[in-house]
User: Fold this.
Amino acid sequence: MIELYGIEEKTYTLNLGPQHPSTHGVLRVLLEMEGEFISKAEPVIGYGHRGHEHMAENRNYQQFLPNMGRVDYLHALAYNQGYCMAVEKLLGLVVPERAEFIRVITAELNRITSHLLWFGAYLLDLGAFTPIMYAFDDREHILDLLDRITGSRLTYCFYRFGGVPVDLDDEFITGTRAFIQRLRSRWVDYDNLVTKNVIFINRARDVGLITKDQCVKYGITGPNLRGSGIPYDIRKSEPYSAYPLFDFEVPIGSKGDIFDRYMVRLQEMEQSCRIIEQALDKLPNGPIMAEKVPKRIKPPVGEVYQAVETARGEFGIYIVSQGDVKPYRVKLRVPSFANLSLFPELAVDTLVADLVAILGSVDVVIPEIDR
Amino acid sequence: MLKDNLTKALAPLGLEKVADGDYAKTGYHLEVAAQPDQMAGVAQAMLDAGCFLESFTAVDLMESFDLVYHFASFDELCRTAVHVPLGKRKGMPSISQIYPGADWYEREVFDLFGIHFFGHPNLKRILLPEDADFHPLLKDFGATQGND
Assistant:
């Protein structure tokens, strides 16, 4: 409480969320404030805890597949891919090349949808209403394309152990090429509307700095890490699937402020377009499913750790098998969990208005953190 | 190479096992087994080598726990898995002083497994409600328990 007529000023507590629109899901942040400045911020998570890891122990390997579309609902296909690759490693299954290409194409399209949604929603947080209209207009095209072959718009469950169940058709391929052309023509609008916008630049420059030291100590990954100038992208650093076959760059920032993270995400969308184009050009013929995939998935005793790059950073899946039809233990290492754990440090001594800008720029997906 | 440097840095700690991992099969370049009281030393060696804490979790093996730390590096592809056996009803020294990022991971393991971490600055539940009286990832916790 602030005593109006006394000399003494005390800190007071402000509750941000769990229903606050700028927390992107049910996140609550307990703020201890001195006037407009934050002296302590404590994220309170777990409102959306569904117990995915516990569910994994109670169903067989195939039955757990749909869960993987519901952890990070914005980049569900990366989760599909990580889980399938981990189980394939346990089983020793080799995925046909065409299936790997289809996985790359669809996962990259999904990455673009995630970044577009972040772009729109983030600027909405900052008070700019128009960009989300542009972003969702573009995003809708991808959702239609993915809907054609995966059958869903958001919570995808598309990959299978050993490949993919549905092949790409000509309409998807021409549609994707047309979409990439369209998206490229839109970068000019995005730049004019936001990147060159003085109000945005002034709010984003030199705010919410993440240092390299913090990245190591907190395990920050994804665009947040690359914005701080560390070129760590699992698609390059620990190549998986068909990614080594494609030529693409890893965009990085220099300072690690909000603007750098914004630029990294924007440039990543263009890189994803490049990957998709190359994959469509080189798309090999052949089967889309491995031969001899056992009907009863029963991996031998062992453990495996598989990492993939999602739109938010490293998703790692750790599976312990004891030779049963059910996994003995599944641990989901989600990028937003580590990224948000740094937030209390970022928030100290900032203004409330900046706090919302910083939280949005870290791009957390709460259901992913809560699992 | 980072792997050789790590092997060298871990040698004076007298660990039970520091061996090359089978990367194609498990995704590990280096596999380490340590006792609970050695973990702080291992974490410090990892931090000094520039590795970050990728993930930390526990596995309930009925008679005991297996704590699993994964470390990786931004500079070079080298994943280290550190296994720490821990008896039931035993506590574990916290490494959150060394890796502040371990703070939340340890809270999660405390929440879901009931493992206590000594020296943790803020050990309380993180995913489940404060008043929960169960630890759902223990193997004796049934699929339908905790609903009432």
In short: The mean pLDDT of chain A is 89. Strands of chain A lie at 12-16, 28-34, 37-44, 302-310, 313-321, 329-333. Residues 170 and 176 of chain A are 10 Å apart (CA to CA). Chain A touches chain B through 41 residues (CB under 8 Å).
